[in-house]
């Protein structure tokens, strides 16, 4: 995204670099020469969807900051330049490798349902409120996690404070940036939603229309918000004037006088904001063909779904079969893993998630028997019983686990789950060997559509990640409840071999995040593609939707493999581009290769502090 004209870029990067005195000026030269989806070198690396965010991270690394400082700096900038995907009104999952301690930790800063959020609020009479109405409303906003997540990540694992790492974002917000085709398209797709709110229209639709490509977009109100957080810490967000503004905005959305429809208000209170806190969670750990794979645990389903799919695939030898036969097994394994993920993964503070069972090799061996080597399953498959494979015999079956698997499989797919519209992934590493794999979001493209008046940021609609079954009395592990975190698919991932990091990766894209991470890993590890080729390869995503179809990119659909898979009963739906990956490869010679999406979403930006061979 945002591949800028060199002149404009240099100006912007100067703005970024100036905030970090001399050390950050290296970001200018590195960046100007380096508008590239791949960079190899030493001293630290960064990859994101946006050149300014990547440059901010590199500036921090050059001035002595670590990978956590760099990741937060990049996320702050993305809140300005990629405001429809992420920002301080949302939340995220940060996976961190601490090189000194040789351990992986995670800072979960997922949004939380307000205490007044009862599932009945999502129904009118006995029927769920139509999703488009929930999507653009105060009701769908969870308590944002970003500000506290950044603060805790920096305090525990960083070397800088918010006052320092938010400076690049403040500069970009003040000075503005040139709108590119992707930003323009995103705005244009949301005109009807954004026009509903006076604050959103005045920020993103000046003159009533999306700003043209090449126009300069600044957001001084967001700069003010960041300055408040930089000065006072996350308290300013959760207890100060910003908290009051959020509560007012959700209680009385700033609906335009001529709005063609009503907008439901939310129930978030000042206490909900004041009580917000992050969770430091154990990552989930699985193994695959000699690699150790760390992922995000519940409330994200990412790490568990990736781990289970890989365990299923481990039973097959890619070299012993055709690529089509391997792809067939990949799709069927993903279908089975999604059945389990949908049935059993939710906020672990509300349900027993059978983590050990889902990741047990014995469970995978049993579950693998459901894969027909010759034929794709027709329609959705049922969840298995990972509870029978829990190592801890005291774990009881939760209410969710006792649900009828048939009922779960029959739930309609979420109309909101559109790939490649939302979310962003940042990957950073530093010269000490620390690594960050960080996915953050405001959920749908443009979140709930409501800019907090005077503060320049969109609120999330993350509560649409809850499952709202057809009837308010149908139990579901991931149903809305007060204080609960909705299940996510975000899959920041770190892969090691013999204790040493091999790669770090992640992607946006709703629940296709899981399959993008999987497919990239499989392309790289099993099919032997270099990392960038693995990323660029056409994508296909099987998520056990009731229609049984796999979603695929047009280039995949026109491939020979797709034709051969159709003969095995696979049915595909064209969904356009899927995902916008970023990652870092740790090479045997001690260099690192940062990789960003080469084409999707306009292409991303990968940089290193010191290029190899210079
Ligand atoms: N809300 C989604 C999740 O947590 C991420 C947003 C998206 O990419 O759809 O999984």
Brief description of this entry?
With about 625 residues, the protein is α+β, with helices and mostly antiparallel strands.
Description:
With 614 residues, this protein is an alpha+beta fold. Helix content is 36%, strand content 16%. The protein has 24 helices and 20 strands. Strands 1, 2, 3, 8, 9, 10, 11, 12, 13, 14, 18, 19 and 20 form a 13-stranded antiparallel beta sheet that branches. A three-stranded mixed beta sheet has the order 15-16-17. A two-stranded antiparallel sheet has the order 4-5. A hairpin with a 7-residue loop joins strand 15 and strand 16. The protein is globular and about 60 Å long. 59% of the residues are buried. The structure holds glutamic acid. The site of glutamic acid has 12 residues, from loops.
Q: Which helices and strands, and how do they pair?
A:
Layout: H1 6-18, H2 21-32, E1 38-48, H3 51-62, H4 67-81, E2 91-98, E3 103-109, E4 123-124, E5 127-128, H5 131-135, H6 146-157, H7 162-165, H8 167-175, E6 177-178, H9 181-189, H10 191-195, H11 198-204, E7 216-217, H12 220-232, H13 235-238, H14 241-251, H15 270-274, E8 279-281, E9 284-288, E10 291-295, H16 302-313, H17 323-344, H18 355-358, H19 361-368, H20 405-409, E11 424-430, E12 435-441, E13 493-497, E14 500-506, H21 512-525, H22 531-536, E15 540-542, E16 550-552, H23 554-557, H24 560-567, E17 572-574, E18 582-586, E19 592-596, E20 605-611
Parallel strand pairs: 16-17
Antiparallel strand pairs: 1-11, 1-19, 1-20, 2-3, 2-12, 3-8, 4-5, 6-7, 9-10, 10-13, 11-12, 13-14, 14-18, 15-16, 18-19
Bound molecules: glutamic acid (GLU).
């Amino acid at each position: 995204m945002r591949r800028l004209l060199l002149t404009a870029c240099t100006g912007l990067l100067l703005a970024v670099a100036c905030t970090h005195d001399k050390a950050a000026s290296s970001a200018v030269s590195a960046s100007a020469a380096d508008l590239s989806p791949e960079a190899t070198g030493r001293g630290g690396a960064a990859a994101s969807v946006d050149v300014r965010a990547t440059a901010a991270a590199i500036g921090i690394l050059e001035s002595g900051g670590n990978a956590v400082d760099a990741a937060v700096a990049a996320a702050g900038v993305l809140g300005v330049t990629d405001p429809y995907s992420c920002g301080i009104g949302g939340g995220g999952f940060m996976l961190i490798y601490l090189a000194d301690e040789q351990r992986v930790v995670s800072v979960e800063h997922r949004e939380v349902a307000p205490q007044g959020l009862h599932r009945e609020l999502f129904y009118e009479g006995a029927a769920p409120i139509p999703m488009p109405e929930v999507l653009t409303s105060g009701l769908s906003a969870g308590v944002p996690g970003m500000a506290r997540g950044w603060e805790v990540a920096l305090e525990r694992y960083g070397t800088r404070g918010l006052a320092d790492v938010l400076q690049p974002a403040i500069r970009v917000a003040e000075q503005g940036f040139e709108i590119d085709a992707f930003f323009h398209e995103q705005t244009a797709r949301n005109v009807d939603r954004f026009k509903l709110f006076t604050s959103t229209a005045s920020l993103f639709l000046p003159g009533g229309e999306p700003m043209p490509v090449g126009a300069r977009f600044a957001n001084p109100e967001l700069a003010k918000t960041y300055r408040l957080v930089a000065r006072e810490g996350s308290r300013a967000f959760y207890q100060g004037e910003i908290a009051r503004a959020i509560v007012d905005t959700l209680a009385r959305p700033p609906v335009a006088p001529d709005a063609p429809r009503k907008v439901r208000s939310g129930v978030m209170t000042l206490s909900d904001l004041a009580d917000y806190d992050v969770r430091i969670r154990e990552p989930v750990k699985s193994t695959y063909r000699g690699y150790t794979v760390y992922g995000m645990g519940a409330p994200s389903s990412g790490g568990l779904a990736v781990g289970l799919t890989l365990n299923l695939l481990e039973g097959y030898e890619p070299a012993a079969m055709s690529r089509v036969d391997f792809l067939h097994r990949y799709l069927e394994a993903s279908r089975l893993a999604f059945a389990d993920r949908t049935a059993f993964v939710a906020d672990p503070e509300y349900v027993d998630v059978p983590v050990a069972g889902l990741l047990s090799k014995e469970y995978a061996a049993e579950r693998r028997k459901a894969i027909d080597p010759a034929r794709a399953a027709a329609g959705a498959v049922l969840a298995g019983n990972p509870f029978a494979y829990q190592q801890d015999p005291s774990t009881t079956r939760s209410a969710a686990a006792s649900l009828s698997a048939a009922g779960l499989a029959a739930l309609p797919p979420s109309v909101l789950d559109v790939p490649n519209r939302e979310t962003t992934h940042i990957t950073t590493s530093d010269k000490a060997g620390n690594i960050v794999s960080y996915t953050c979001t405001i959920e749908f493209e443009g979140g709930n559509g409501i800019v907090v008046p005077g503060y320049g940021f969109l609120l999330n609609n993350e509560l649409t990640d809850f499952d709202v079954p057809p009837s308010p009395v149908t139990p579901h592990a991931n149903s809305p409840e007060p204080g609960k975190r909705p299940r996510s698919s975000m899959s920041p991932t770190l892969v090691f071999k013999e204790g040493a990091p091999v790669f770090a990766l992640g992607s946006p894209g709703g629940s296709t995040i899981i399959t993008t991470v999987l497919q990239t890993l499989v392309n790289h590890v099993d099919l032997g593609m270099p990392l960038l080729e693995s990323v660029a390869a056409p994508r296909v995503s099987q998520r056990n939707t009731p229609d049984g179809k796999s979603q695929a990119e047009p280039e995949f659909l026109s491939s020979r493999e797709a034709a051969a898979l159709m003969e095995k009963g696979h049915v595909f739906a064209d969904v356009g581009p899927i995902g916008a990956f970023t990652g870092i490869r740790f090479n045997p010679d001690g260099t690192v290769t940062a990789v960003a999406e080469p084409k999707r979403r306009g292409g991303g930006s990968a940089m290193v502090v010191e290029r190899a061979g210079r």
